From TrEMBL:
PANTHER family: 6-PHOSPHOGLUCONOLACTONASE, 6-PHOSPHOGLUCONOLACTONASE-RELATED. Belongs to the cycloisomerase 2 family. This is Lactonase family protein. It comes from the Bacteria. It comes from Mucilaginibacter calamicampi.
Amino acid sequence: MNKLFISLSILLLPAVVMAQKKDKLATPKVYDLLIGGYTNPDGNVGISVYRFYAETGRTSFLSEVKTASPTFICVSPDRKFVYSVNAIPDGSVSAFSFDYNTGLLKFINKQPSVGRNPAHITIDKEAKNVIVSNYGNGTLSVLPINKDGSLAPATQTIIGEGTSINPQRQAGPHIHSAIFSPDEKHVLYADLGTDKISIAKYKAGKVPALTPEDVAVEKVKPGSGPRIFDFSPDGRFLYLINEMGATVNCYSYEKGKIKFIDSVGLASPGFTGSSSAADVHLTPDGRFLYATNRGTANELVVYSVDQATGKLTNVIRYPTGKEPRNFVIDPSGNFLMLASQLSDSVQIYKIDKLTGILIPINSMISIPTPTVLKLVSAE
């Protein structure tokens, strides 16, 4: 009997191992939803954490931590730390420890962002550095991360240069965001003030970490105001949303080089109001792209993506709350969560994966002036 048991165990072992691997690759069902935004004495105090249940789309409040105007945040790959910009004139960056089981955030330290009014922050996969985009005076700063998760002072600051055609908004550089290439060998950053995408080589362990590429700049149509990016899941295409022009540009991407393919407008035909594009994301399968447009448009626009060419075709547009900003799509591709800054709310939609169409569900978070959302697995 013992021999039979041992033999069966040996035969079943590969199946057990495969099951364990599948479980590790399974999409989480429970998340922490982190919400940041502009702070004020009568409302938002900093970063709030909600539990998000991916089977139902329901949420529940967990915790909050005080910090000044965390309008953009990022989370370390191991989920143990959260970093936020402090979008104030004397810009800074804050570090927090994070318990994803309870949703509890604890302040660790703060460093100058070496710029004014920082608008964006991102972290590399090795958690070596955060890169901060300072909108106010157009600088890009690299801040190393210490072993305890705290931030060290900036080791590199790139100063943007130039102007563009809009004297009110483009009299100088305004770096709005930066994104790592899929292999993290490059960083691309968008300068709204100069209508440029800049490309730099990235080496996490070196100082300075960023060095300009041979062809370091890609210009966009004057007056477009490039704002923020997203890569297609396979890394072949890069999508840029232009705030002032309210357009989405599509580029091919390969080894630190981009090539313009096409551009589509966000506003509906005949629209005569004001537009101010804000955010762009693709679904996990890369079949659909979503983009937000503020101003008097206040819309979330859906496009289908040609998988061969990367080109976009409009599917449908949805009215939203006032000032739709950042949004997130959960890793399963089933839900989209949208922060409407001036409506003081986060709306949750169910995604039809076949059509890209959104279905609002009866689950809304009321929270003052939200501008950024991040989903973190709580499992």
